[in-house]
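Annotated sample (chain length 315).
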Amino acid sequence: MSLRDGIAKVLAEYSSAQSQSFTQHPIASLIRLELRNAVAQLSGDQGALIFKGSAGQGNWAKGPWLGIFNPVVTGSAQSGYYVCYLFREDMQGVYLSLNQGMTEAKQHYKSDAKTALRARALNYRAMLGPQDNRFPQLAIDLAPSSANNDTAFYEAGNIYATYYPAGSLPDDRMLAHDLQAMLHLYERLIHGETASDSSLDSEDDKPTDLHFEDAARFRLHKRIERNAALAKKVKQKKGCVCEVCNTNFEELYGEIGAGYIEAHHLKPLSSFKGTKVAMDPYADFAVLCANCHRMVHRSGLVDDIPRFKREHYRG
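Output written by the structure step:
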């Protein structure tokens, strides 16, 4: 099924589907599987992104969505920022939006979550600059039937968007063109936000004499390593014994050391082009204790742990 045909089917049939049983309903399955796959195909992605579709969890969502997540930032719609298709509650159209995780905002800001989302959106727009030609919608209307619905929070989280009315959906060629342009904007935001985040720098492990672009890549490298979901997968694949000094924190400290180790991304800074970087939990990471991890970064041998161990480790 093409993306256009799938979107049209959801817009035409979702409202009536909501009066039927959610379990194994074909419209819910369409959103989770066929539409998700159609988006992935049109995106041109080579495996760096995560694609998800949702019509709800156990019950129908007021507004279904299709999300595209870069794991450098987030793996779900709960946190960070991402690209998504957001359906209006009244099924009169769908938005392609660069949006934000509302669950995280609700947890941090409680009743001020919408204010925080709008403030962040303003900041992100300032970083990206005007996008009037391609993505003119700064405010989106998802027709929420209640101010507490998820759709109302998605409205507040919108950064940039374009709208497709139900009666005039573009063909797949245009949908692909818009989607790829939005994903490029997403990459720019990740790169720009990471480059400006001085909190990711550390005098103890940052290589010396970095130029501006190298420093931005270093911050992106650190951001990848601090991604909790990725780190968990790395530990599951590679264990929790330092690959340089063989430290096992559980053996040293007992229960409090169980499962403790740091994930180190092996790709050199020169390979960081945009944000499409390899992130296989087994092949692209090493597990290191905190001391060895800092020294690896300090040495500049981020991609060659055996060489680092030969040339620098004295244990």
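Annotation: The chain is about 45% helix and 10% strand.
Annotation: The chain has two domains: 3-194, 201-312.
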